[in-house]
Amino acid sequence: MRRDGRQENEIRPLTITPHYLAEVPGSCFIEMGRTKVICAVSIEEQVPPFLKNSGGGWLTAEYAMLPMSTPRRNARESVQGRQKGRTLEIQRLIGRSLRAVTDLSGFGERTVFVDCDVIQADGGTRTAAITGSFVALVEFFKYLRDKGEIENIPVFDSVAAISVGIVDGAVLLDLDYCEDSEAEVDANFVMTGNGKLIEVQATAERSPFGKKMLDGMIETAEKGIAELTVRQKAVLGVWK
Amino acid sequence: MRRDGRQENEIRPLTITPHYLAEVPGSCFIEMGRTKVICAVSIEEQVPPFLKNSGGGWLTAEYAMLPMSTPRRNARESVQGRQKGRTLEIQRLIGRSLRAVTDLSGFGERTVFVDCDVIQADGGTRTAAITGSFVALVEFFKYLRDKGEIENIPVFDSVAAISVGIVDGAVLLDLDYCEDSEAEVDANFVMTGNGKLIEVQATAERSPFGKKMLDGMIETAEKGIAELTVRQKAVLGVWK
Amino acid sequence: MRRDGRQENEIRPLTITPHYLAEVPGSCFIEMGRTKVICAVSIEEQVPPFLKNSGGGWLTAEYAMLPMSTPRRNARESVQGRQKGRTLEIQRLIGRSLRAVTDLSGFGERTVFVDCDVIQADGGTRTAAITGSFVALVEFFKYLRDKGEIENIPVFDSVAAISVGIVDGAVLLDLDYCEDSEAEVDANFVMTGNGKLIEVQATAERSPFGKKMLDGMIETAEKGIAELTVRQKAVLGVWK
Amino acid sequence: MRRDGRQENEIRPLTITPHYLAEVPGSCFIEMGRTKVICAVSIEEQVPPFLKNSGGGWLTAEYAMLPMSTPRRNARESVQGRQKGRTLEIQRLIGRSLRAVTDLSGFGERTVFVDCDVIQADGGTRTAAITGSFVALVEFFKYLRDKGEIENIPVFDSVAAISVGIVDGAVLLDLDYCEDSEAEVDANFVMTGNGKLIEVQATAERSPFGKKMLDGMIETAEKGIAELTVRQKAVLGVWK
Amino acid sequence: MRRDGRQENEIRPLTITPHYLAEVPGSCFIEMGRTKVICAVSIEEQVPPFLKNSGGGWLTAEYAMLPMSTPRRNARESVQGRQKGRTLEIQRLIGRSLRAVTDLSGFGERTVFVDCDVIQADGGTRTAAITGSFVALVEFFKYLRDKGEIENIPVFDSVAAISVGIVDGAVLLDLDYCEDSEAEVDANFVMTGNGKLIEVQATAERSPFGKKMLDGMIETAEKGIAELTVRQKAVLGVWK
Amino acid sequence: MRRDGRQENEIRPLTITPHYLAEVPGSCFIEMGRTKVICAVSIEEQVPPFLKNSGGGWLTAEYAMLPMSTPRRNARESVQGRQKGRTLEIQRLIGRSLRAVTDLSGFGERTVFVDCDVIQADGGTRTAAITGSFVALVEFFKYLRDKGEIENIPVFDSVAAISVGIVDGAVLLDLDYCEDSEAEVDANFVMTGNGKLIEVQATAERSPFGKKMLDGMIETAEKGIAELTVRQKAVLGVWK
User: Fold this and answer.
1) Chain D (100-129) residues lying within 8 Å, Cβ to Cβ, of chain E
2) Where are the domains of chain D?
3) Which label site among A50, A204, C143, D31 has the fewest CB atoms less than 10 Å from its CB?
4) E14-236 has which CATH code?
């Protein structure tokens, strides 16, 4: 049993609060244990240069942690004048994950912005951000549809993400910060609602691992993602 | 009567939630109408160069708005590589206001950081940030005292802030965003618990104003600050 | 009596030299005691995005101090790669003050730039910059009118600014650097030629102050501004 | 058969030239097909703050592409004033991969810098950079050992990396740029000389993929890494 | 005789390898002794603002050193967020030198980019960059001509550059790094193929020098440039 | 005769006002025709890393133009976040020129800062900056000597600078902005008081030039420098 009483393949308590921001049509607040992230979606009337006059749109994400989202303050990136490598890596992952289930030709030559701001960080912020952003994204597309701007929700499938790690040889699902710090192997899986992989990132923090270990981690991740998918659907209702 | 049903000298519904962040001893969530700000306090073992070996400490504040805290997305400052002038101006004001009631020699040669992050912005974010930060600051000093790091709470008096504006010739207290956009004169007042002024900032947005008008605004502000002070005390209990 | 022999409500010796820069139609050199600022006005054929196709124009200001304008060198902001918070705050104040008396629809969809560069700093640089910039601005508009680009000088009233402070309980007008460092309360007032307030900024540097004190400071400021206004008019002649 | 005549599980022609830079003890030039990278290792007498007084060292990597390493010029990051997200992501991967096989306590409180500069880019620059950097790193440690600065080569195992992708449903090893652009799934594998995984990064560029597909990619990667390992050993000789 | 056996007025062994980068029509690799530079030319469909609608084009250069091009690592400028003064100075010199022999009206309203990346630095990198860039530039224009984009090679004359220095009173041609560090006077000469001066830069590093000394340096430079010109012609063949 | 009535080898009217800044011991205002520069010298108790514990000091210069020093406003570098290449090139030249006549071991392990701020620019700002800075530097050293901080003025010789150009085939001394824009060749010479060269920078703006032309330019420069030297001495009096 884990320090917080969870089974090895058990996710933390999850709450998804849609419409969290009063005046933002596509927003939600996702809490996985003590990790808390605000996800908010908006759209702008322009696309990156490489898409000009293509008729297609783009989706991009930005991620940040509040300085005090962790017990030990981390410096504000705006004060330092640049986003850290970790930040850029995470926001690129969020964008890629959402683009993988989005029909970019479905909302004109515009750019969808997904903002993920971490209020409290206790491990798994990037995976919570992906899981929550998907909810905010569909809410936002519903809003565009209700306004008559688009006909259909341009989303192929749902997407969710979860972390898995090896701690003392055991495969643990949805690591909190303490577990993450002790993990020998640390992995993040992004999967669709019907169980396909979108992104696999596994890193040996302490000792290289075998293929079998990876298999075990994927299996555990699949269980977690399935649960997240159920919860996303419960919040979103029928949206296709 | 105002659009939202308030009297001219009535503040918006106010909620102050102390200990908002699980692992941050000095934090609170302040809501004034739809304006919502997280205030969090921390300390670091160093001071700015001009205080080295002075024995005294420092207090500084940082302020930011989430990109989607407003209905229309505002670009992330970390992505733009610099804080805007408005941001710097506000965080300087917050720092000055708190320093005016803090005994900087009361916590050693260390720097207190006050982080104010706006989750939702509907006018009056800087004043809410000051009012909330004071609560977070005292909570933080209580924590240091309980740990035995300091003997007394190094705070002379309480501090709170409120906006006042002239809209269609009438003096309105605690403007929301719409009222603020229409105001002919826009002012912010920072005052202590026993009614003294710490900072006055009044700006003619549309038409210059007379001294009498300023008097009316101060009077109205005094009423608002008095109410905020009561609420701060209710949350903090006896702290001196 | 003050260290330099002035009465409490006496301004420092003032000189305003219009046309200071040979090839700049709107420029002046303002000296208030040892504080010396070059003010220069120019115009560009574009406006900020929010004014595009509005038909109206904009006015913006930039402020800087030479590294050696103070006895102790202050680092060059271009070398540091960013303007300091203080700088941004001051140049925003200058811009706001001038816009408050300028008809922005009076010179087409263009932007007026006001550059204030401090050659020597002995307190009151921001107020000198405002007072001097007004002269440079009107000179510039005269030039545009003489060229036939505009019909009338698009200025409603004159504007000037002065500092007032409380030192040892006394209200002093137009503080020099030493007085400013010792002030318990430090205030800047921006007023129109016919005695209305445009901006009030009062800060308790050491001890909070009562409303009566503020009244005293305003009264003293009014006297100072009236004198500055006379001097501006003497330089500008009839311009309306 | 592939456009360039290779089998699906065949790597491109590989050349590793150690001691490529005349005066740099740990350097090599690695060419995999048309992808060419200079790897160079150096050391500095300091560590990041979190390691001060720990007795242990650090290893970090930097990566860049020459503007003309691709047929279409890509802007110089020094001119743009910041490294792109892709760059930071890659150099973090290189650093992590090398640290996973390096005994960081084996060279004192110092930092090893690994510089990877891409002269020509035709896909697989990050994997070539890892494979080549390992050679440069061991050469550098040999040099330190020969100078008597360290006793043993502080490296646990060798490390190499290869890309695998799914193109038209087929699993291809070591993609060139064209193949990479067409890939439905794109993956990079970092493995040790004795066949353990250090990092797995698999991304669905076009369509989500099943676990079986991932298995196939790992298997193919293993074959490629085994070949790279042989080549690294051939260049390095006996180094343990 | 010099440390490396050269005569005082003898250049180092020179190799110019055109078409060094596989997919870049205008590129070369120039080696002067241990100094090695990749020069690559490309073109973009835009010009600086001051040339818009002028019908004429522009040519600009960028220069960088690999961090490990010198035995002692020099920090990567992209990591530091800005190009150093030395870098800007050199790339401005390269651009000026090439523009002096190029007919900027000969390739439409476009900008030619010249990238000079130093792989190994042993003195004289800026002069090698100029000499090599000229070859890459002509190769690039040949390519444009062969594609039918331009009719003639828009180049008036060839250009090459060499360093000369005074070491222990003797005039030395083409200094290597050691000689350069010891030089009392350090000069760079840029000249055309028919012996005219394009740029003279002579600096007293240790002791001021007389006009006669300058004459001696020019004479020596002329000899060196003549040799470089022959070598450029040998590589380029008939191009006019 | 030239547009402004000068002979070809005649410098513009020159005024050097020492002690221009009230509280800066080493400052001067130099005016050459309409070009006006404030030069100010200060010292800091630190040296660049490469001089730590060397016992020797350093001298460095910074240069900037006021935005309105030219009829057409040039953007403020602090707003743009970086100094331009031209600026860096000029301030490096000023620093080098002054170091060439300064005994860096003569004022301890400290750094002398030379600030050159252009108030009005009409060609020749860099040469005026050098000529004026020398005066400010000696004034500053006198001040240090009078305070007893140094025993002797650590300056070997005087230094001054002048521009020379070829306009319509004629060699002109001390070009103003218009002449500079039309020059076929543009050169700057830095020389010592006893006629030795410190720096020669000659650039063919339009057409390459022969050695003879360079000889003519040097001769003309010598005449100009001799006059500047007389003027510097007149201001400085006996300082050795």
Assistant:
1) 113, 115, 117, 119-120
2) 14-236
3) A50
4) 3.30.230.70
